[in-house]
Design a protein that fits this description.
By secondary structure, this protein is an alpha+beta fold. The chain has a single domain (7-109, 152-192), classed as Roll (Pnp Oxidase, Chain A), CATH 2.30.110. 27% of the residues lie in helices and 38% in strands. The protein has helices at 7-20, 64-71, 99-106, 111-119, 129-142, and strands spanning 28-34, 40-46, 49-51, 54-60, 74-81, 86-96, 154-168, 176-183, 186-192. Strands 1, 2, 3, 4, 5, 6, 7, 8 and 9 form a 9-stranded antiparallel sheet that branches. The longest helix has 14 residues, at 7-20. The protein is elongated and about 55 Å long. The protein starts with 6 loop residues before the first helix and ends with a strand.
C-alpha cells in the first residue's frame, strides 16, 4: 500500500496544474471502449467530474461508445497534458449516472449544446450537413422560450477506477511511471519502468 498517497487527490492536483498552465481543454480525455468481440474504439470526450466514486463524462447512450458500454461495461481514459509533461491513464468498470444527475448536468449546458444534442443522432449517417442544420433550425423554433428536455438516451457514465497510472516526461525517455491498483483496504502502489 502507498501510505498517504491518494491517486484521486493526485489526479485533481495534476488537473489543476494543467489548468494553471493554460493547457487547452485540460478536461479533454480519450475514452476507449470495446464490444464483446474485442473490437476497440477510442474518441475524445470531456471530463465533468473526478471524485473517489469515479470519473464522469456525458454522451448519447445510443452512440457506438454507449453500445460498447452496454455490452462490455469497462473503459479506459487517457489524459495528456503536453505543456506540463504529464499523462494519466485510468481503467475501470463503468455505470450510468442516475437520471437525476444527468438532469442536473443537462440544465448547466449551454442552450445551443442542448439543442445540438437533441438534433443529432450521434454517429448515425446523415445525407448532408444541411439536413442536420435544418433539424437544428426546426428544434430552435420548437423550443423558443421553452425548456429543452433531456433526451432519455443522453446521459452520463462514471468510470470507477480500478487502475490509475501517472506518467511524467523525463529526459532520455526514462519517464517516471507510477501505478495504483484498487484493492481491499485501499490502493496498491508500484513504480513501472518506462
Amino acid at each position: 500500500m502507498a501510505k498517504g498517497v491518494d491517486p484521486i487527490a493526485r489526479f485533481n492536483s495534476w488537473f489543476k496544474e494543467a489548468q494553471r498552465a493554460k493547457v487547452a481543454l485540460p478536461e479533454a480525455m480519450v475514452v476507449a471502449t470495446s464490444d464483446l468481440k474485442g473490437h476497440v474504439s477510442a474518441r475524445w470526450v470531456l471530463l465533468k467530474e473526478a471524485t473517489p466514486e469515479g470519473f464522469v463524462f456525458f454522451t448519447n447512450t445510443r452512440s457506438p461508445k454507449g453500445r460498447d458500454l452496454d455490452e462490455n461495461p469497462y473503459a479506459s481514459l487517457v489524459f495528456y497534458w503536453d505543456p506540463i509533461g504529464k499523462q494519466v491513464r485510468i481503467s475501470g468498470r463503468t455505470d450510468k449516472v442516475a437520471p437525476e444527475e444527468a438532469d442536473a448536468y443537462w440544465l448547466t449546458r449551454p442552450r445551443q449544446s442542448c439543442l445540438a444534442a437533441v438534433a443529432s443522432s450521434q454517429s448515425e449517417s446523415v445525407a448532408s450537413r444541411a439536413v442536420l442544420l435544418q433539424r437544428l433550425k426546426v428544434l430552435t423554433h420548437q423550443y423558443r422560450g421553452k425548456p429543452i428536455p433531456r433526451p432519455p438516451h443522453w446521459s452520463g457514465y462514471r468510470v470507477r477506477p480500478e487502475e490509475i497510472e501517472f506518467w511524467r516526461r523525463r529526459a532520455y525517455r526514462l519517464h517516471e511511471r507510477e501505478l495504483f491498483v484498487a484493492g481491499r483496504g485501499g490502493w496498491r502502489h508500484s513504480f513501472l519502468q518506462p
